[in-house]
Write a structure and sequence with these properties.
There is one protein chain. By secondary structure, the chain is mainly beta. The chain is 10% helix and 37% strand. The strands form 17 sheets. It has a nine-stranded antiparallel beta sheet. The chain folds into five domains: 29-95 and 115-133 and 141-185, Galactose-binding domain-like (Jelly Rolls, Sandwich), CATH 2.60.120.260; 204-290, Immunoglobulin-like; 342-531, Glycosidases (TIM Barrel, Alpha-Beta Barrel); 550-650, Sandwich (Immunoglobulin-like), CATH 2.60.40; 670-941, Beta-galactosidase, Chain A, domain 5 (Distorted Sandwich), CATH 2.70.98. α3 (330-342) links the parallel β29 (312-317) and β30. Its EC number is 3.2.1.23. One of its GO terms (biological process) is lactose catabolic process. Monomer.
């Protein structure tokens, strides 16, 4: 290389290094003093004044709730706080302040401290004591630091606030309350002349308005450019309006050819802002993730995003983990949001405080609408003075998240109306403020209303109906139960904006003072769609189907099936043909085969190009052997590859399908004995004993072993006397027929016809099979159960394998979310939301039964083929929860242990009976009139 070329190369290397140096020097640096979350912590010195492990200095993980580290004492929010007033924690932590920081601005930032925080640096107060647990606060500590040396951070945290309105809002609320530095702590190192913060309004048409806050008088101009999330510059932005007042720059620009943000397509960009001095030298630069979207709350109309009227399919969510309380990791935020998206939700309400920053970041990137909320709880409301600070801290931190559409000024009568106008002081987007559980300005956000309130005929019928809590999910009630009825009405009401379920997860805390047991404080915190560790309850899948953006009208497949389905696009921003759908024709194997099914045919479905909120049809290809299939599955997948839902359509009736599995071989020898009011029959090595007085099965013995299935069929809710028990011997079978007296002679089958008697008919085949046919007399409307029941000891059951809807149990008002398939569940004794958290629950009602193989612990199980359509299996008796004082989510089950019924009850919520939750929850069952009796036909194989 020549000397000249060497000098040129050296010059350009120097220029590059200077450029890199300038770029790095004008960006802020973050240095964590704590860890970043539950699974990433740093040990600090710690002293707790009261309760567990108090009275001496030790260490504690930061961030954390100190109860979960074994300190202090527990309390659920509604407890008396008198015993907590003396409880405080002292923290100490040493850190090095680098020498090169001396000419920079150093801030210390606390993302969340419960509850009052006094911060000192090297023995001097960093600023005023901060009050309020869920809000980010900071101090500029440049003048308190010793550069090039070790510095001491001290924090005193009082668990109970000196401000009584803070205590009422946060520590008397309906959730677990803790103590400690529960969110990260870090230093922010910025240039001397720096951007303090920015507020951005990126609209759907590409317009960007930004407020840039800097106290430096050296800032003379502003540059802006747009990049993708990989920092690839897309375009420089020309500032069309630019004015400065009191250290704040107000600028306007326009981005071209942008993609808007919405939950279905959460397009994000990086907006970089540079402030320059008079010589065009960059003093400081900052980058913010933004999404282009416009929010409008149109009076007497609805809530619109990017010009589209929105139906919010939402849930309330706490920042919570069982082992760490309010200290949560980024991974948990992502996991929860993915589960919400999997349930086809598009919105989440922050209950009842601003969440971790990483949760909002994930809502931006994964796509969820957000209501961000300040923490209050009933009356009295927050003091105005402290409330103004809290509102500012909330909005300043969260203002730039495109996911946030609305602010909530507290919860359930806790609103301080003096604060309503404060949000606009800090929010450049001027988002609307709502009062959850209140008729306020444009919205009616009523909570836990009965179904008939959807008539919306009150004085607020001109308000946007927007319940921020409905269908309370205590234990197994609410959530999915009732949702189909509510949503059918809500989505078709012009002024309905959808709503939010209560709530996402059971808040069961690991009690370090009680051998690490899970505690929901009775029935206060067992309200989730999922368990404390994300265990999916049945409602999870009901919600997934009811809130599917692809709605397929109910369809039954008959021999004349033409392959056409009616479909509706319930997306807001997505054409139906952007999704994929697969049709799969499947044939099942029998109860004793290890392979559960085989696929006969699989094909792609061409979905029509339907715009949002339009209807059409699609066709399914019928293979030549389609009538040999047992079920048709339709699986829809969205553009991101996530399953929307899988719908199942049985092709054959139970009787037709079961015919292939029921043993039809004949044996010719019987042994029949009638003695001591019993009929004993031996067929193919199986001994059956029936009562000569009632016709009930009394005992089954196979290969010398008792199978403890007996005492049935008892006809439920029937008290008629037996007229006769007849025995009839045929060539390869014996029939035992029981006829009951007829008390009610009113014509209820059909006009001018008298009611038939109830009849039980057993057929014992010579090959050992046992058929049962029960004919019921009809009543058009009944309360209680219509069906039959048997006894089988729960202690003998180890599991079951069945063909029917599953794997979760159902209620009358929660039938959706299941799939018709061969399922297999092991026995468990889960009480939903209270014990075990093993899902699906083993015990309860299961719909569309075709056959079930009951597994016995001592090889004493059996198989039942159900040859009647629309029959429910009742498997054992679930225990009702212990903390249900009004019995709204406690169910009265039929007598016996295993039942086959034609109707099942609905389930209520914490605040409602099932009757008030819509038509599907009604306790009366209408069977109509029929020329034929209602029948249950079963075949038993022992």
């Amino acid at each position: 290389m020549t000397k000249f070329k060497y000098l040129v190369a050296s010059f350009f290397i120097l220029i590059h290094l200077l450029a890199v140096g300038q770029t790095s020097s004008v960006k802020s640096e973050i240095q964590y003093l704590s860890g970043t979350g539950k699974d990433n912590t740093v040990d600090w010195q710690f002293y707790c004044s009261e309760g567990m492990n108090s009275g001496s200095w030790t260490t504690i993980s930061v961030p954390s709730c100190w109860e979960q580290q074994g300190f202090g004492g527990y309390n659920y929010g509604q407890d008396d706080l008198a015993t907590r007033h003396k409880e405080f924690g002292l923290y100490k932590h040493e850190f090095l302040a680098a020498e090169e920081w001396e000419n920079k601005t150093i801030e210390i930032i606390f993302e969340g401290v419960m509850t009052d925080a006094e911060v000192k640096i090297n023995g001097k107060l960093a600023g005023e004591i901060h009050q309020g647990a869920f809000y980010e606060f900071k101090y500029t500590i440049t003048d308190l630091l010793k550069f090039g040396k070790t510095n001491l951070l001290e924090v005193k945290v009082n668990k109970v606030s000196a401000n009584e309105s803070i205590n009422h809002a946060e520590r008397k609320a309906d959730f677990w309350v803790f103590g400690g530095i529960f969110r990260p702590v870090y230093l922010k190192i910025s240039p001397k002349e720096y951007i303090e913060r920015v507020a951005i309004d990126a609209q759907a048409d590409g317009t960007i308005n930004a407020d840039i806050f800097s106290s430096s008088n050296k800032v003379k101009s502003v540059n802006m450019f747009l990049s993708d999330l990989d920092n690839n510059k897309i375009q420089d932005l020309t500032i069309t309006e630019n004015k400065q007042e009191k250290g704040t720059w107000h600028v306007t620009t326009t981005a071209n050819d942008i993609k808007t943000w919405n939950p279905e397509k959460p397009n994000l960009y990086l907006l970089t802002i540079e402030v320059l001095d008079a010589k065009k030298k960059v003093l400081h630069t900052t980058s913010n993730r933004i999404g282009f979207r416009t929010v409008e709350v149109r009076e007497r109309d609805g809530i619109y995003v990017n010009g589209k009227q929105i139906k919010f399919k939402g849930v309330n969510r706490h920042s919570f983990h069982p082992s760490s309380g309010r200290t949560t990791p980024k991974a948990l935020s992502i996991e929860h949001i993915k589960m919400m998206k999997d349930m086809n939700m598009n919105a989440v309400r922050m209950s009842h405080y601003p969440p971790d920053v990483h949760f909002l970041n994930a809502c931006d990137s994964l796509g969820l609408f957000v209501i961000d909320e300040v923490c209050t709880w009933h009356s009295p409301h927050l003091d105005t003075e402290v409330g103004e600070k809290i509102v500012k801290e909330t909005v300043v931190r969260d203002v730039n998240h495109p996911s946030i559409l609305l602010w909530a000024n507290g919860n359930e009568t806790g609103w301080n109306t003096d604060l309503d106008d404060d949000y606009a002081l800090w929010d450049i987007q001027k988002r609307e403020v709502i009062h959850p559980w209140n008729i306020f300005k444009k919205t009616n956000t009523l909570h836990y209303f009965q179904y008939h309130a959807l008539a919306n005929d009150g004085y607020s019928k001109d308000k946007i109906l927007f319940p921020t809590e409905f269908l309370h999910g205590l234990y197994d009630g609410g959530h999915g139960a009732g949702l189909d009825d509510y949503w059918s009405k809500m989505r078709n009401m012009p002024l309905s904006a959808g709503g939010f379920l209560w709530d996402f997860a059971d808040e069961a805390i690991v009690r370090t003072d009680k051998n690490n047991t899970l505690d929901t404080d009775g029935n206060h915190a067992a309200d989730g769609i999922v368990g404390p560790y994300g265990e999916k309850e049945a409602s999870y899948f009901t919600i997934k189907e009811v809130w599917s953006p692809i709605y397929i009208e109910d369809r039954f497949i008959t021999p004349n099936f033409n392959g056409i389905f009616k479909v509706e696009n319930r997306y807001h921003f997505t054409n139906l043909n952007e999704n994929k759908m697969t049709a799969k024709w499947v044939q099942f194997n029998g109860p004793d085969e290890s392979d559960k099914f085989k696929v006969l045919s699989e094909s792609e479905i061409e979905l029509p190009a339907l715009e949002p909120n339009t209807k059409g049809t699609f066709s399914v290809t019928k293979p030549d052997n389609w009538q040999s299939a047992d079920v048709l599955y339709l699986t829809a997948v969205d553009a991101q590859g996530m399953e929307i839902f899988t719908w199942s359509y049985p092709v054959k009736t139970p009787k037709a399908l079961n015919a292939a599995y029921i043993n039809s071989s004949e044996k010719s020898k019987f042994k029949k004995t009638i003695k001591d009011n019993s009929i004993a029959i031996e067929a193919n090595g199986i001994h059956y004993t029936f009562s000569t007085k009632t016709g009930l099965l009394k005992e089954v013995i196979k290969n010398g072993k008792v199978i403890p299935f007996n005492n049935g069929p008892i006809i439920l809710a029937q008290h008629d006397s037996v007229i006769s028990v007849a025995i009839k011997s045929l060539k390869n079978s014996i029939e035992i027929t029981t006829v009951f007296e007829l008390k009610d002679k009113s014509p209820t089958w059909a006009s001018h016809k008298e009611l038939s008697s109830d009849v039980i008919k057993w057929t014992i085949h010579s090959n050992g099979l046992l058929d049962l046919a029960v004919d019921f007399k009809g009543k058009r409307v009944i309360k209680g159960y219509k069906g039959i029941t048997f006894s089988f000891p729960e202690s003998e059951v180890s599991g079951m394998k069945w063909l029917g809807d599953g794997p979760y149990r159902v209620w009358r008002n929660r039938m959706k979310g299941t799939q018709f398939k061969v399922w297999e569940n092991d026995y468990n004794n889960t009480i939903t939301g209270e014990t075990e958290y093993v899902y699906p629950e083993f015990k309860g009602f299961f719909s569309s039964l075709y056959w079930v193989k009951v597994k016995g612990k001592n090889d004493n199980g059996f198989t039942v083929y159900c040859n009647s359509e629309n029959t429910f299996l009742r498997m054992l008796t679930p225990e009702n929860p212990s903390e249900d004082p009004n019995k709204r989510v406690s169910i009265e089950y039929p007598e016996g242990d295993i039942s086959f019924v034609k109707n099942i009850p609905g389930i209520g919520t914490k605040f409602q009976e099932p009757d008030t939750m819509g038509p599907q929850g009604n306790t009366e069952n209408y069977f109509g009139n029929s020329d034929e009796p209602i029948q249950i036909a079963l075949t038993f194989e022992f």
